[in-house]
């Protein structure tokens, strides 16, 4: 299949775009990566995702697919040969979808909330909530992995992708707030999983460098703080 | 596995539980429905959905599946007759995209119109809701149902809008969808609600209206008291 048949509109800091990179790698699909400047979105992005105007967008045979988890499932179904991203059993698939929804609808907003929290008390509460979510996910990991390396077992799968994409941003939150979120003694399963995830062949080359991400986050959040300060004057 | 007993933990006035009943009925699956008291949640509900403690939850073969969109896909994958999602991966991705849109956007803004009194907040919700409904209108253009000629996954996901919206408009005195501005959506409301297995499961209108009025009163007074 020609490289240009599969295009990914992404942005290097985006955890959601990272999900798609990993899924494409799992299936060994050749693709063209188009880096978007999120402050100056391309015509292609605005046309391909007119509803949300966000990355990632997968363009396959000139048809755009949006929403990272919809894209990951699309990749699993359009390239249906092994390895699979979702399990084959309907109940196991439901469990995987449930946890991916928990991550997107509950846990990620909490992680995002850390940057938005104003004042020490609010920050602490936001960080505690992220940690509590990780404790829930630790239990989920225990049940899903059944003693193996990943949520999906021996290989990276749907929930691994859904959660693993945020590991760089967890590091950013830890460094910026001088705390530990992925606490090894409270979440030993997840701590080990995180290392294996980042080292995996499908992830290693596409995961952004954590310190570059930290630098990027610092820059964005300082710019935002300056904007808020000047608009408050 | 598919022949085992199917139980739905639901609530008669819940749009999300209704989605599941529609899916089960569409596929001709026999099920038992248990009405949960959401103000006094049962041990059964807390056991079967410990993370969110919400309905709907599907019980099948000793397993519990919460979250309505997750349940819908489980039902479609377990019982293959009358498929809800299309076969083509691209069409499936579109259905999932729009389902997420409806659940993230319309599910917040339409109740937002309802849960606010006349004023800025309500006006803002109304404008957003109309904007989102316009986007859905475009998806329906040239089609009888979101699923094409027949009802599919997205029709079942959006179905609550067809039934609940007129009640919300009536109670708040606000019109969001009129036939002139929303010809496709208006036609779809009628077509969807006429489908026999959709119609037979709709909560009784007088009972729902009374329930929504009481529910709104509680919502508004709790906002006033900042509870």
Features:
heterodimer, A: 233 residues, alpha+beta, Glutaredoxin, Glutathione S-transferase Yfyf (Class Pi), Chain A, domain 2, four-stranded mixed beta sheet, 9 helices, 4 strands, globular, B: 227 residues, 2 domains, 7% strand
Mind explaining what this structure looks like?
The complex is a heterodimer of chains A (233) and B (227). Chain A has 233 residues and is α+β, with helices and mostly antiparallel strands. Chain A has 2 domains: 6-79, Glutaredoxin, CATH 3.40.30.10; 90-213, Glutathione S-transferase Yfyf (Class Pi), Chain A, domain 2. Chain A contains 9 helices and 4 strands, in the order E-H-E-H-E-E-H-H-H-H-H-H-H. In chain A, strands 2-1-3-4 form a 4-stranded mixed beta sheet, covered by helices on one side. With 227 residues, chain B is an alpha+beta fold. Chain B has 2 domains: 6-78, Glutaredoxin; 89-226, Glutathione S-transferase Yfyf (Class Pi), Chain A, domain 2 (Up-down Bundle). Chain B is 58% helix and 7% strand. Chain B is built from 9 helices and 4 strands. The mean pLDDT of chain B is 94. Classes of the chains: A alpha+beta (233), B alpha+beta (227). At the A-B interface, strand 4, helix 3 and helix 4 of A face strand 4, helix 3 and helix 4 of B.
In terms of per-residue confidence, which ranges of chain A show pLDDT below 50 for 5 or more consecutive residues? none
How many individual helices of chain B? 9
User: Count of DSSP helices of chain A?
Assistant: 9
Q: What helical percentage do the residues of chain A reach? A: 55-70%
Q: Give the overall average pLDDT of chain A.
A: 95
CATH architecture of the largest domain in chain B: Up-down Bundle
The order of strands across the largest sheet of chain B is 2-1-3-4
User: Major sheet of chain B, described briefly?
Assistant: 4 strands, mixed
Number of strands of chain A: 4
**Helical fraction of chain B:** 55-70%
Shape of chain B: globular
Number of individual domains of chain A: 2
Give the class of chain B from helix and strand content and strand pairing: alpha+beta
The overall pLDDT of chain B, averaged over residues, is 94
Overall number of structural domains of chain B: 2
Strand order, sheet with most strands of chain A: 2-1-3-4
């Amino acid at each position: 299949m020609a490289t240009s048949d599969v295009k990914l509109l992404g942005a290097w800091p985006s955890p959601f775009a990272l999900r798609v990179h990993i899924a494409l790698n799992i299936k060994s699909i050749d693709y063209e990566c188009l880096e978007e400047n999120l402050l100056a979105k391309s015509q292609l992005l605005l046309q391909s995702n007119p509803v949300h105007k966000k990355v990632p967008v997968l363009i396959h045979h000139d048809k755009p697919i949006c929403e990272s988890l919809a894209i990951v499932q699309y990749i699993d179904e359009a390239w249906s040969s092994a390895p699979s991203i979702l399990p084959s059993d309907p109940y196991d698939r439901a469990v995987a979808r449930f946890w991916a929804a928990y991550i997107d609808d509950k846990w990620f907003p909490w992680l995002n909330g850390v940057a938005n929290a104003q004042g020490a008390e609010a920050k602490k509460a936001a960080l505690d909530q992220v940690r509590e979510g990780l404790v829930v996910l630790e239990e989920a990991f225990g049940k899903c992995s059944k003693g193996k390396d990943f949520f999906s077992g021996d290989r990276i799968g749907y929930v691994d992708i859904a959660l693993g994409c945020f590991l760089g941003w967890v590091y950013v939150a830890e460094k910026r707030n001088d705390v530990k979120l992925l606490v090894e003694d409270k979440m030993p399963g997840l701590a080990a999983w995180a290392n294996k995830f980042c080292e995996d062949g499908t992830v290693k080359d596409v995961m952004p460098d954590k310190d570059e991400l930290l630098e990027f986050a610092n820059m964005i959040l300082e710019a935002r703080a300056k904007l808020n300060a000047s608009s408050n004057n | 596995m598919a022949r085992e007993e199917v139980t739905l933990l639901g609530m008669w006035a819940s749009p999300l539980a209704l989605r599941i009943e529609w899916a089960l009925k569409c596929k001709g699956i026999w099920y038992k429905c248990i009405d949960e008291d959401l103000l006094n949640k049962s041990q059964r509900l807390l056991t079967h959905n410990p993370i969110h403690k919400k309905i709907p939850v599907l019980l099948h073969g000793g397993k519990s599946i919460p979250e309505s969109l997750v349940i819908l896909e489980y039902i479609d994958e377990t019982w293959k007759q009358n498929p809800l999602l299309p076969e083509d991966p691209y069409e499936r991705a579109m259905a999932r995209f729009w389902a997420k849109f409806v659940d993230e956007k319309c599910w917040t803004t339409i109740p937002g119109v309802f849960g606010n009194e006349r004023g800025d907040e309500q006006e803002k919700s109304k404008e957003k809701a109309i904007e989102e409904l316009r986007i859905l209108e475009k998806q329906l253009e040239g089609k009888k149902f979101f699923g094409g000629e027949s009802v599919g996954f997205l029709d079942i996901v959006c179905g609550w809008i067809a039934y609940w919206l007129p009640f919300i408009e009536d109670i708040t005195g606000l019109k969001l969808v009129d036939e002139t501005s929303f010809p496709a959506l208006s036609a779809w409301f009628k077509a969807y609600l006429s489908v026999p297995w959709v119609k037979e499961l709709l909560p009784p209108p007088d009972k729902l209206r009374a329930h929504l009025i009481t529910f709104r009163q509680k919502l508004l007074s709790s906002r006033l008291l900042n509870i």
